[in-house]
Amino acid sequence: MTTHEEEIDDVSLLGSSDETLAIGLEPKKKLGFGFWLSAFWVVLIALLAILAPILPIKDPSENYIVTETAENLRGDLVEKPVQPPYPLSGKHLLGTDKDARDMLSRTIFGARISLAVGFITAFLGLAIGGSLGMLAGYFKGWLDKIISALFLVSLSFPGLILAILVVSLLDRSLWTISITIGILAIAPVGRLARAQTITFAEREFVIAAETLGAKRSRIILREMLPNVLIPMATLSMLVVAIAIVAEGALAFLGLSVQKTATWGKLILTGSDMNSLESAPWIAFVPIAFLFFTVAALNYMSDRLRDYFDVREMYDL
Amino acid sequence: MAGSGTAHLRKDDPSILLSVQNLVVEFPVGLRKKVHAVTNLSFDIAEGETLGIVGESGCGKSTTARAVIQLPKPTSGVVEFKQEDLTNLKGEDLRNIRPDIQMIFQDPISSLNPRRSVFNIVSEGINIWKEANGDLTEDRVIEIIKDVGLDVEEALVKRPHEYSGGQCQRISIARALVLDPKILICDEPVSSLDVSVQARILNMLEDMKERYGLTLLFISHDLSVVKNVSDRVAVMYLGKLCEIGDGDLLYEEPAHPYTRLLLAAIPDPNNKHSGNLDVLEGELPSPINPPSGCRFRTRCPRATEKCAAEEPEFQQIGNDDHWVACHFPHIGGDNGDDEITWPPQVAIEESE
Amino acid sequence: MTGSATILMLERCMTYKADEEHPLLVLEDYRIGFKTERGLAKAVDGVSLSLKRGQTLGIVGESGSGKTVLNRGVIGLLSARNTVESGSAKFEGEELVGENRQTFWGTKMAMIFQDPMTSLNPVMKVGNQVMEPLRQHQKLSRSEAKKRVADIFTLVGIPEPIKRLDQYPHELSGGMRQRVMIAIALAIEPDLLIADEPTTSLDVTVQKYILDLLTRVQKEQGMSMVLITHDLGVARGRADEILVMYGGRVMEHASTEDLFKKMSHPYTSALFSSIPHLHHKKHTRLTPIPGTPPDIIEPPTGCRFAPRCTYAQERCLLESPPMTHQGNHRFACFFPIGSQQGQEALTRNQQRGHTASGLQIRKKTEAT
Question: Chain C: nearest CA to B318, how far in angstroms?
Fold first, then answer.
């Protein structure tokens, strides 16, 4: 040892990384082709639904009966109507139903209701359920007990019964149905929000914010919300999917929105034994749309959840 | 009133910045039981001093730190800071005193909001208080980020998970220093870090202490780290203080049997206390039902009936800054005849 | 394990006796790489060692040194999918590399891990967890196994063993859980125990107890042990020999006594100096190791430690130093501490103010 100990000046080496990060050991996260494909479909359907009235598609309620020349019993040539339903053709890209109404246009118009129900439901769930859940999770105590009890009651209540009750007591408008299903979505979203909030409320960065002197409102908005929002947003996509299916189920029972077509109604119309055998497209066109939309939403929700999952360092 | 006493407090000393007296923290568990996390703890810190609190898991050292900053408020006791009892402050009054007492935590990554940029995190203090205090500007944030050795440009865009553990700890330190606190409480700040990174952070804390005129309360289970960084060291066991005094003195002549046990257990090659005591039997007693009298008696080679009946109060050793709460302390570094009364005569209580 | 495989293994064991001349575990240029997007991450880059029966080898290194990967590789716990294993690792004369190591688990090799909470099954009673390997590998009946477990619990110092058998991991303290994990490992009376940072997350008094326990059992059962730790102090007290790893390679390897008497590799010395020691006065300035651990995918040419070494010369950046052997003490360095070359190298760096890799060296203004 020399009389003057050398001092390592480590300031010159301090750069962007002063300890090992497992560089390159974790693949860079991507949302993936499947995600973007699904997103494309959902956006497409939404656009089609919104723009339906101005799209160059046929009128959904008009009966496009086609006639053909045929001999009648006396041997004269007369115009006789061809019995619908008409299969897929150049005139009707997805065929027609038993009343000769164009399936493509009916499905697109049906999307308007189905998607509307989906998004209104998700919005209600997120706004009301999310807020209640966060408050319950952050403040705990008696507020938590009350809100959790409400959630529990809501979850235990058979949704179908509620829907039937509402329908028989009130009307069958878009808003009524949406709000009914929406109310049912509050509890599941709320519980997730509560669980996430509790997890984050225990993290030290929340205590750090308190030591800095942040007010509670600031902590909820600036520390908790950004963290809780992501899992809730991904859950909301799932809620949209479930709501669309729920509406379909209600329609199947004859309980959905009156007057206008919805996917559920279309499926119902095409689902008697006769049609399924001879003209399966009447049911399967709306089924396909429903399926792809729901699958796309589910898949997107899954990928988003993975993507935003902040992982810990890889330990060697 | 039973307790380890307050004889060791430096009363009427104008340089005392923080004085904790008879701190009690209890948590209810189940219907009728309570966890006695901290019981009648007293200590003080002078301005510019570093007090290290050391103890094993369950001793209540972290709970003490949280109680000092009133998160949550202790069950009872006095936390005197700048002539105010913090336990009496509420709401806005309490909030206003917060910038003066800051804290850094054990888990470097968990102490930072994963969704915010590092620059944003460090500026949080400024953003909260800038209306009240015009001195707090973004320049200060930039200056401090550079001071802890991080790149400002990167801090503006990167999030905590893009940094390593040691760097995250620096970010925490920067965040704490932005408000120019008087006291910085460090709760196991290097325990989760790699050995070579520990040294850097410890050096940095010493530098920051000097540069920013800080008073530190440093908590750790690692006696070597605590001794290195502190002026005075306090040893805690099961919610109580066993020994407190000058760090070097405590090491040279540990008086409390528990302190001696801790020192003996440390696997440091040059540890002169190594092997002084035989293997320790028995588990840590339950904090729900702690032993009567001296809480260490169930594992102490010197325990007698007196230790069960009467809780020891702090007494000074000689005229030094060295205080111990024990009926039979080791005075002057004598090694005593521990082996003769080992294993202990009193029954060892089971842990929960 | 099938009947014929058992017989085969028993035959092999009976013809091979690990003793002084025949080491229990021999590694030769053992390598483990992980396939990543950027290339092969050479986590273990050519490690050779030899472990005798009844001996304790301490492997010391920081995170990223490859010490954990090395041991998991030897025992066979790495997923085969992304792992590339090469070199030789012989246990009792049998080559492990490329082979399925399950025949060794539960019979001859056992491992204990750092965090007992995550290593124990939280929904299974601890008694059952210890009984499992006994019943599976040694074919004991339930009551036989139960009695054996109670005996082992007593051996590792778990009080009221019968009562503990029916408890779940979360009902026990950290120290107790670690003892349970040791019990699981020792129940099968392994020839080799690999302890990966077994006491790092425990209190210091519990740590001492656990390490004492391992040493005691080791002597009683004639077991060999590999003790992995980042703490030189722990290794010093418990290991017969110490292997210092950095960047996937062996930097220094010597008997414990020799290592501390004559520390030769600059990394070992830097590691030792970077931690606070009890005997230092308070506020002793620590000397951290500057710089960052190497990128194991594209490691620098030459010595892995050169970018952070105060002795580094130009040669160190170009050539990878081979092992120098001084009796049983070996190290990989061109300018070892205490040698003439080393002293000259250090002086040269001090005079010019920096090392060959750009590390600045500044003299302290006041002598300590």
Answer: 21
B244-249 long-range contacts (CB < 8 A, ≥24 apart) are B244/B8, B244/B43, B244/B314, B244/B323, B245/B8, B245/B317, B245/B320, B245/B321, B245/B322, B245/B323, B245/B324, B246/B320, B246/B321, B246/B322, B247/B52, B247/C282, B248/C281, B248/C282, B249/B320, B249/B321, B249/B322
Contacts of residue A20 in chain C, CB cutoff 8 Å?
A: 63-64, 292-293, 295
Give the three-state DSSP class for C251: strand
pLDDT per position as a tens digit, A120-153: 989 988 899 989 998 998 888 899 999 999 999 9
Nearest to C234 among B200, B267, B282 (CB): B267
Name the 3-class secondary structure at B85. Answer: strand
More confident site: A255 or A40: A40
- Interchain CB distance below 8 Å, C363 and A27: no
Read off the pTM: 0.81
pLDDT reported for residue A78: 81
Calpha distance B186→C277 (Å, rounded): 20
Q: What are the angstrom distances between the C-alpha of C202 and each of A8, B347, C210?
A: 33, 24, 9
Closest CA to B264 of B282, B276, B280: B276
Q: Which residue has the tokens 């209104």?
A: A120
Interchain contact, B283 vs C176, CB within 8 Å: yes
| Nearest Cβ partner for B197 among A19, A227, A230 | A19
- Residue C127: HSE in the Cβ half-sphere, 13 Å Cα cutoff: 18
Answer whether A69 touches B (CB < 8 Å).
Answer: no
Ranges B94-98, C103-107, C221-225: which has the least confidence: C103-107
